[in-house]
Each structure stands twice: as structure tokens, then as C-alpha cells.
Amino acid sequence: MDSAIGSPNREHQAHTKQPPRSPRPSKYDFRSCLEEAAKLESEKRISFLLEKVHEIRKIYTSLKAEVASIDRRRKRARRKEKEAKGETENEPTANLIETDAGAS
User: Fold this and answer.
1) Helices 42-103 & 31-38 angle (0-180, nearest 10)
2) Rounded to whole angstroms, how far apart are CA atoms 99 and 28?
3) Is residue 104 very low, low, confident or very high in pLDDT (cuts 50, 70, 90)?
4) Residue 56 contacts residue 27 (beta carbons within 8 Å)
5) What is the pTM of this model?
6) What is the dihedral of CA 86, 91, 94, 96, to 10 degrees?
């Protein structure tokens, strides 16, 4: 019995009828530093890897800040859009109230 026929991944590919995506290439290549580290002696390897961890943390922090900034801008834009939508919905009602009050 072939277990690959009933696999969820193969079924998903059959339903979508699109070729599987290749992963998007990353700006950062962390594998090359691991190859370099493998060539070093233990003490130097540890200090090298600690440096790389520090660099990766700095990259992560900057990306996290960038994502937070984008989220704040999106939230601000949604809020403005919602307020503008609320103002346009309230205007006709306000005009009706004014005309009813003026007609009496």
C-alpha cells in the first residue's frame, strides 16, 4: 500500500492545482556562518557563534520595531477610515433632523 497517495500534502496540491511555491529567498544567510564556525577550534567557535547570536538579536530587534511601526500606521489608517465613514453616515441623519426642526 502506498502511503503517499493519501498524504494531506499531496491532496492539498491536487485541490489547489498550482505548483508548490519555492521559499522566498532571505536577505540574511545564516548558514554560511555555520560553515565558517565548523572550521574553527572550540573556543574560537564559541566566541564566533556568540557574536553571530548578538548580530541576529540586533537584526530581530530592528525587524520587530519595523513591524510594530507598520502595524501602528495600519491601525491609524483604519481608525481614520472608520472615523471618515462614521462622519459620512451621520451627516444625512443630521440634515434630516435640522430640516424637521426648521419645518415645525
Assistant:
1) 170
2) 64
3) very low
4) no
5) 0.50
6) -130
